[in-house]
Every structure is written in structure tokens, then in C-alpha cells.
């Protein structure tokens, strides 16, 4: 029902070219036949309008978890737990308060655990066009997060790789 295009044809072409992007079909077509056809053409999920925004968000989060091969909404790094469903962070039994941007940054690093994430990648995924490439907004946020999640006398969960970016390590010692 796209103007001048057929969504299922686009989906089929994407899959035929090897594109593995997760696709969630949002449509008014609600017959079983339509749903089956959409899923058989390669959609990862199918949601019929009208729908509750909470359901859409839950389905998108499920697709994101699939992208990172995880079934749980919890990302665990040592005793640091990031609950992506409730957007909460805890260290052991202690809940850590993080404003939305700090939470998004920590979650992004956790989703890429044990991999260096460049400042540019962080800016593109967390800050969009709001961060000036020459500013220290990311460095400042990393510093603030470290103060909240690291125990005194131990190495940081977040390692700085000079000239490359940051890496959330799988264990803190």
C-alpha cells in the first residue's frame, strides 16, 4: 500500500540481494494470508494497524536483541547490569541513575562490548547532529559515567583507546 510501490516487492528484492536488515511490516492489511505472505517474503515481524505504541517499541527492541544475538533484555558486564527493557542500570544490588544520553551511551557501548567504538560512531548513533566534532561532550559523558559505575581502586569498565575510541570491557578488575 505504498504509493507507486509494492512493499512486499521491495522486501523480496532486498532479501534476494542478501540484505539482512531486520524488517518490521506496519500495515493495515490484517488477513492471515497477508501476514503469512509478508513473513514468507522475508519480514522479521508483522504488526497490523492500529497498534499500541508500547507494542511497537517492544517489537523493535526484540529485533534489536536479535541483531546482537541476545534473548534477554539484560546486558551483563561483570556485576554491571543494563536492563534495556526498563532502561535501568545497576551495579550489584545498587541502582545507578543515568540521564537518557548517558544511559544511551552506556547501552551502546554494552551492545558493542569488547569492541572499540569510535567517537564518530558514538556521535552518529547517540548525539546525531547535536555534538560538535571538536567538542568534548563524549569525553565528558564517559567521565561522568565512569564516576557512577566504577568502584574506587579498580580499573574502569570503560577503557579509552587513544586515537581510536572507547571500549566497554567484559570484566572489571
Content-based structural category: alpha+beta
Strand order of the largest sheet: 3-4-5-6
Task: Give the overall silhouette.
Answer: elongated
CATH superfamily of the largest domain: Winged helix-like DNA-binding domain superfamily/Winged helix DNA-binding domain
- CATH topology (level 3) name of the largest domain: Arc Repressor Mutant, subunit A
Helix and strand run: HEHEHEEEEHHHEE
Q: What share of the residues does DSSP label as strand, in percent?
A: 15-25%
The amount of helix comes to: 25-40%
Low-confidence stretches: none
How large is the count of helical segments?
A: 6
What structural keywords apply?
Rossmann fold; Arc Repressor Mutant, subunit A; 173 residues
Amino acid at each position: 500500500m505504498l504509493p507507486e510501490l509494492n512493499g512486499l516487492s521491495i522486501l523480496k528484492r532486498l532479501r534476494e540481494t542478501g540484505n539482512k536488515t531486520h524488517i518490521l511490516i506496519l500495515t493495515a492489511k490484517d488477513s492471515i494470508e497477508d501476514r503469512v505472505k509478508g513473513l514468507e517474503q522475508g519480514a522479521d515481524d508483522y504488526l497490523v494497524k492500529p497498534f499500541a505504541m508500547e507494542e511497537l517499541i517492544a517489537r523493535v527492541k526484540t529485533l534489536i536483541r536479535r541483531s546482537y544475538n541476545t534473548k534477554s533484555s539484560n546486558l551483563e558486564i561483570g556485576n554491571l547490569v543494563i536492563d534495556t527493557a526498563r532502561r535501568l542500570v545497576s551495579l550489584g544490588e545498587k541502582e545507578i541513575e543515568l540521564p537518557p544520553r548517558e544511559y544511551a551511551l552506556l547501552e551502546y557501548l554494552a551492545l558493542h562490548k569488547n569492541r572499540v567504538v569510535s567517537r564518530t560512531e558514538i556521535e552518529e548513533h547517540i548525539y546525531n547532529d547535536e555534538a560538535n566534532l571538536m567538542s568534548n561532550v563524549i569525553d565528558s559523558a564517559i567521565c561522568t559515567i565512569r564516576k557512577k559505575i566504577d568502584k574506587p581502586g579498580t580499573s574502569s569498565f570503560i577503557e579509552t583507546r587513544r586515537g581510536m575510541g572507547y571500549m566497554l570491557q567484559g570484566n572489571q578488575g
